[in-house]
Specification:
single chain; alpha+beta; conserved putative lor/sdh protein from methanococcus maripaludis s2 fold; 29 strands
Length: 409
């Protein structure tokens, strides 16, 4: 509020100063602008031409010269020149950095870049537990990060409960031989003992070994059910193991997920099945293909972004969990009228583009804008295709236009 008051009183002071300056010009016999009821210039103290400074429009003369304030060459203006817009000749446009371009219709696919983080494929994670209570004897996979193959032994466990069940199996097998006349009853006992051992993950080969030797296996071996890397290990020798204890976490990293953060204004452009390129900072120039397989239904209240999940093959294990990567989406765009983003002057209340006219004149045009596309802005209304516009130095044009309007008022 204080800044707005300061700007307001500054503008009033400038207008008063400019009005006083012009009044002194008239009183001293210097050229002054004379306009008709419509606001058009009629004459300048009877002269048919007027010379003025583009940077300081209140400076006028009836002959060529230089501005006493900025030393810029005065510009000639015809008596019937319109009083709206800004007029700057070509040499002065170059001096203050004003460049021009065209409003064009574009429909090229745009690139949307987001930051992503590599994480595990949750469908490829295996948690290893024992189904019987016991004590760990030998540990074969003894460090985190080790690769294990499916069927590879992980550890051995001494379990009194498992040992008792094996003895029950041997008794049932002996009873089956003795009670030949009651074969059905003895067979049920025998099969029940075998089923219990299978439930506790004793393999058929181990069961056959017990039956063949007539001796129970003292230390039960636990095998890996899936191949992958050990990402967590809680199995140590002589440690008690229970069914609720997670002994290993094994993850297959041949495929990984990438969680990308997409701003809520861009998420409508992302669809499941869409492809993207993934690049890593430590491997410049190398990219991997990824595919969107899920879009989170919620928005992060802090970053105002939505998580988009991509799936990617990981040959050579270049993508490592917790690594940050760049994700580039190719987003198809509908044909639309666009201008360079620098051509639009956005004051928060209105958006203006300066349209180039003949004779070095620029006309302010209110426009409505849409999305941004690789450094360009979609124009919804206010411009026509192939209209010539100012693409740089727009702020200087607007400043001169505002100053000119203030002096006129």
């Amino acid at each position: 509020m204080k800044l707005m008051k300061t700007l307001f009183f500054g503008l009033i002071a400038m207008i008063v100063f400019g009005s006083g300056y012009l009044l002194r010009q008239v009183q001293e016999g210097k050229p002054a602008v004379v306009r008709d009821g419509a606001g058009k210039i009629v004459s300048f103290d009877g002269q048919k031409h007027d010379y003025y400074c583009p940077m300081h429009p209140h400076i006028h003369s009836d002959k060529p010269g230089k501005c006493p304030i900025c030393n810029m060459a005065l510009v000639e203006r015809k008596a019937d020149a319109p009083s709206v817009g800004v007029q700057i000749d070509t040499s002065q446009q170059q001096l203050i950095g004003v460049e021009t371009g065209y409003a064009t219709v574009t429909n090229d696919a745009r690139q949307l870049q987001a930051q992503g983080k590599v994480t595990y494929d949750e469908t490829a994670i295996t948690h290893v537990h024992t189904r019987v209570e016991g004590w760990i004897e030998d540990v074969y996979v003894d460090f985190t990060g080790k690769w294990v193959e499916r069927g590879q032994p992980l550890l051995t466990i001494y379990s009194p409960e498992m040992l008792a069940s094996q003895r029950e199996l041997l008794l049932a097998a002996k009873a089956k031989q003795i009670l030949a006349g009651q074969q059905e009853s003895s067979s049920r006992m025998f099969e029940a003992a075998k089923s219990r051992l299978r439930f506790w993950e004793m393999s058929d080969d181990q069961i056959e070994q017990v039956l063949r030797t007539g001796e129970p296996i003292r230390f039960f071996t636990l095998y890996a059910h899936h191949s992958g890397y050990v990402t967590d290990r809680k199995a140590f020798p002589h440690q008690k193991a229970t069914p609720d204890m997670e002994l290993y976490t094994i993850v297959d990293l041949n495929r990984v997920w990438i969680m990308a953060d997409i701003f809520e204004s861009d998420v409508a452009q992302i669809r499941p099945g869409q492809t993207a390129k993934v690049s890593m900072a430590y491997l410049p120039g190398k990219t991997l293909n990824a595919r969107v397989n899920f879009v989170q239904p919620t928005v992060d209240p802090v970053t105002r972004t939505i998580k988009v999940r991509l799936e990617a093959a990981n040959p050579g294990l270049h993508l490592k969990p917790e690594m940050f990567v760049a994700v580039d989406f190719q987003v198809p765009s509908a044909a639309a009228l666009t201008v360079p983003a620098e051509a639009v002057l956005d004051s928060g209340v209105r958006k203006v583009v300066y349209v180039a006219k003949d004779g070095g004149r620029f006309e302010a045009r209110d426009v409505q804008t849409g999305e941004r596309r690789d450094g360009r802005v979609v124009i919804l209304s206010g411009l026509s295709p192939n209209e010539k516009i100012a693409t740089s130095g727009v702020f200087l044009l607007d400043s001169e236009s505002q100053l000119k309007r203030a002096i006129k008022q």
